[in-house]
Amino acid sequence: MRPFGVNPGAKEGRVSPAYVSKLTLKGLTVNKNPNGINGPLASVIMSDFGRYLENLVLDRFGSRRKFIIAAEGEDRAQAGVSYFSQVVAGKKPPPLHRLEAWADALGLQGAERERFVDLACIEHLPEEVRPRFRAILSRLEAIEKRLSSG
Q1: Domain boundaries, the chain
Q2: What is the C-alpha separation between 83 and 11, in angstroms, rounded?
Q3: Which of the 8 DSSP states describes residue 42?
Q4: Per DSSP, what are the bridge partners of residue 37?
Q5: CA dist 63 to 19, 49, 66, 145, Å?
Q6: 82: part of which helix (H) or strand (E)?
Q7: Which of 58, 133, 119, 61 has its CA nearest to residue 90?
Q8: Backbone phi, psi, residue 34, to 5°
């Protein structure tokens, strides 16, 4: 029997980032701290945008490859999936010139599309100022939610 959290096909005791993303997004509990995941999963840290993007893609397409084909075409699938994986992992910033195509493929509109673009833009800021901009974005969303419900 395989231990919990170990990807079938992964080397003994190793966990792939994609598998961890699926575990985390499916609501399975893992010990988390504000900076990422503890324990054997500690090397897999996703950005806020990465988590958001991965959640949208898995929910709407089921796989990264299907999403990249829908957003960028079959000819970009191989390179696109590789780059996409680095974006999700927080190793590369999202490509600003592809955001509109990604948002269109995901069917994002209105506030959801705005959040997508805002989180992507934050990933281009210096690391030390990102928490402040995320906090501002969260406060703005809370205010907008209160205004729309009251």
Answers
A1: 1-45, 48-53+61-149
A2: 23
A3: T
A4: 32
A5: 11, 17, 6, 31
A6: helix 77-88
A7: 119
A8: -60, -20
User: 17 with 88: CB under 8 angstroms?
Assistant: yes
Of all residues in the chain, the percent with pLDDT exceeding 70 is 67
Mean pLDDT of 23-38: 38
Look-up of token digits 């100022």: 129
Other Cβ atoms within 10 Å of 78 Cβ, number? 11
Distances (CA, A) of 135 to 90, 122, 142, 144: 18, 11, 11, 14
Whether the predicted pLDDT of 102 surpasses 50:
yes
**Token pair listed for 50:** 């990465």
Give per-residue pLDDT as tens, 61-94. Answer: 999 889 988 988 877 767 778 888 899 988 899 9
Q: Report residue 2 CA to chain centroid gap.
A: 26
Rounded CA-CA distance 72/102 in Å is: 8
pLDDT at position 18: 47
Q: Do 61 and 102 contact (CB within 8 A), yes or no?
A: no
Residues 6+ apart with CB under 8 A from 40: 5, 13, 15
Task: Name the residue type at position 134.
Answer: R
